[in-house]
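Sample intake sheet
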Amino acid sequence: MDKIKLEGIVQNFISIIPLFKKKLLHDSCKFDKGNLNHSHFQILTVLKKYGKSPISDVAKKLFISTPNMTKLLNKLIEEGMIERIPGEKDRRVINIDLTEKGNTYLENRFFEIQSSLIDKISSLPEDKLDKLNDSLLTLKEVLNEISSDI
């Protein structure tokens, strides 16, 4: 493919991320409630998607260093959101998993975010909503085709 075209695609992609955060996620993803921040939320989300996992795997998926991961996990354990589980085959491997409280917290946050996003996009005309939906489906399809090491 033409290098100029690829550079244009990359530039569009890079410019849409801050716009997406500013227009859609800025207010809905604030963590004013409680003591958890965005990094805690990401850890919980990874555990929801992948289930019980070694700490090192979760850290790699989120690009978090081991010392930072330990601090974040300690807070989540203190809040009762996750639990540490020794490895069954190798006790040196420590797994983490969501607790019921962590799962409930995630479900509530997802509902809050979903409600906020619905409020924001509901003012769009029907044809724009259809176009947005089609574009998001296409973007999701294309992103799934891009290889990733994670």
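Comment: The mean pLDDT is 90. The longest strand covers residues 82-86.
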